[in-house]
Design goal:
It is a single chain. The protein folds into 2 domains: 2-71, no CATH class; 92-342, 3-Layer(aba) Sandwich (Aminopeptidase). It is 45% helix and 16% strand. It is built from 11 helices and 8 strands. The protein has an 8-stranded mixed β-sheet with strand order 1-2-4-3-5-8-6-7, sandwiched between helices. The longest helix has 45 residues, at 2-46. The model is unreliable at 12-76 (pLDDT under 50). The structure holds zinc ion (ZN). Zinc ion binds next to α6.
């Protein structure tokens, strides 16, 4: 009797172990698959691609799914999309993230100082992440300090090139509008450009150091852009078709297209037309040696300066992130995108 019971117990143990042996790898396997799928999802998400996370990944295997994963759960259906990735479009939220980082996390960025240097690292990192070819140009300021231009290059099909520029130094405050706003718009424009097909022309995204005036001399400014233009080779200058300067585009009621000319030239007219096509009311306004387009225009490269006007808090501690308007950022980004698409 005891022997019979013992055999039954042994039999049961054998059955349990056999089922367990088959079952354990199945569990392990599904865990691995689900973790891999979650990893791929997070990768696609961080690359800015819209994707869906299946319920199974949230509900099974992961004892404490991250809140991000839960928030982004859209549908329980897993759809494998074999269509080509849609071209990236300008995302004001991303641009605002850059503006916040530069003006709030880093803060005031006077030319030649530590914060200006930190901003240059941030910009270079962002361009590297996008896969642009990056380089740094170092130059000396009249006070002996150094500043830097950060350059992101995207090779195009032809020999010609377009320069898009924004300065990242600030004066008298955190410079959210003047000019983290321009940097944010251009970093996001670089992401859009890098995510599209090969552009017809090469694109130089140039982030200038030391645009603001140093000392009392009215001409002691635009150090980064002047240094860049002075150091362009003859061939580079000849191949540069145009320069788009983005400076102070986060606050205002009027979108101005500016250049040094009294009346808009053909290039400024292109922008006024593009703005109209987007339903944006824009005006032409003559500038006078007051932003980074100056050196390019003086070198014979057709240039425009895009600026939202008028911000009375520029060069003061009140030029803070909370005053930046999503509408202005979005409109500027869409105008730059429309220009690049029109090439
Ligand atoms: Zn500025």
């Amino acid at each position: 009797m005891i022997l019979k019971r013992g055999l039954i117990v042994l039999g049961l143990v054998f059955v349990i172990l056999s089922v367990g042996w088959l079952w354990v790898p199945a569990v392990v396997e599904s865990l691995v698959v689900e973790r891999a799928a979650a990893g791929i999802y997070m990768l696609l998400k961080s690359a800015g691609l819209k994707t869906e996370l299946p319920d199974a990944i949230c509900d099974a295997s992961e004892p404490t799914p991250s809140t991000t994963v839960l928030q982004d759960r859209v549908s329980p259906v897993v759809e494998v999309d074999t269509a080509p990735t849609p071209a990236a479009t300008f995302d004001a939220t991303r641009a605002l993230g850059h503006i916040k980082y530069l003006s709030k996390t880093i803060g005031p960025r006077p030319a030649g100082g530590k914060n200006e240097r930190l901003a240059s690292y941030y910009i270079k990192d962002e361009l590297d992440k996008l896969g642009l070819q990056t380089s740094i140009q170092k130059f000396t300021l009249p006070n002996g300090q150094h500043s830097y231009n950060v350059i992101g290059f995207l090779r195009g099909a032809g020999d010609k090139s377009i320069v898009l520029g924004a300065h990242f130094d600030s004066k008298g405050g955190p410079g959210a509008n003047d000019n983290a706003s321009g940097v944010g718009v251009l970093l996001e424009s670089a992401r859009v450009a890098a995510g599209g097909g090969e552009p017809p022309y090469s694109l130089y995204f140039i982030f200038f150091g030391a645009e603001e005036r140093i000392g009392k001399n009215r001409n002691n400014h635009h150090f980064g852009s002047r240094h860049y233009v002075r150091n362009m080779t003859r061939a580079q200058a000849k191949m540069a078709l145009a320069m788009v300067n983005v400076d102070m585009v986060g606050k205002g009621t009027e979108l101005a297209v500016r250049s040094l000319r009294a009346k808009p030239g053909p290039f400024a007219n292109d922008f006024l037309k593009l703005a109209k096509g987007l339903g944006l009311k824009s005006v032409y306004k003559q500038g006078k040696d007051d932003s980074d387009y100056e050196a390019f225009e003086n070198a014979g490269i057709p240039s425009v300066w895009l600026q939202w006007r008028k911000d009375n808090s520029w060069h003061t501690p009140k030029d803070t992130f909370d005053r930046i308007g999503r509408t202005e950022i979005d409109a500027t980004g869409k105008l730059v995108a429309a220009y690049l698409e029109s090439l």
